[in-house]
UniProtKB/TrEMBL annotation:
It holds the Pfam family peroxidase. Its cofactor is Ca(2+); heme b. It catalyses: 2 a phenolic donor + H2O2 = 2 a phenolic radical donor + 2 H2O. GO terms for molecular function: heme binding; lactoperoxidase activity; metal ion binding. It is an enzyme of class 1 (oxidoreductase). It comes from the Eukaryota. This is peroxidase. One of its GO terms (biological process) is response to oxidative stress. Keywords: Calcium, Heme, Iron, Metal-binding, Oxidoreductase, Peroxidase. The lineage of its organism: Eukaryota, Viridiplantae, Streptophyta, Embryophyta, Tracheophyta.
């Protein structure tokens, strides 16, 4: 099994979790935790379900009211406002 598919946006991440090959231990918890295990299995076995969920999440994120121009700023440090 390949650990990555760098040229493709796919569900390989979830397949790796099911196989016990999560990149970070904090990633692997998604599969070991009963609250998220069903979703990980579903995304690993169904690229269509993964793509649909990703599309839905991106649409929601797009409505989050990102501030642009002089109404917002790109932070140099994500934990603090720029001075």
């Amino acid at each position: 099994m390949y650990l990555e598919t760098p040229q493709t946006f796919d569900n390989r991440y979830f397949k790796n979790l099911v196989a016990g090959k999560g990149l970070l231990s904090s990633d692997q918890v998604l599969f070991s935790d009963p609250a998220s295990r069903t979703s990980v299995r579903d995304f690993a076995s169904s690229p269509g379900d993964f793509n649909a969920a990703f599309t839905t999440a991106m649409k929601k994120l797009g409505r989050s009211g990102v501030k642009t121009g002089d109404r917002g700023q790109v932070r140099k440090d994500c934990t603090a406002f720029n001075s």
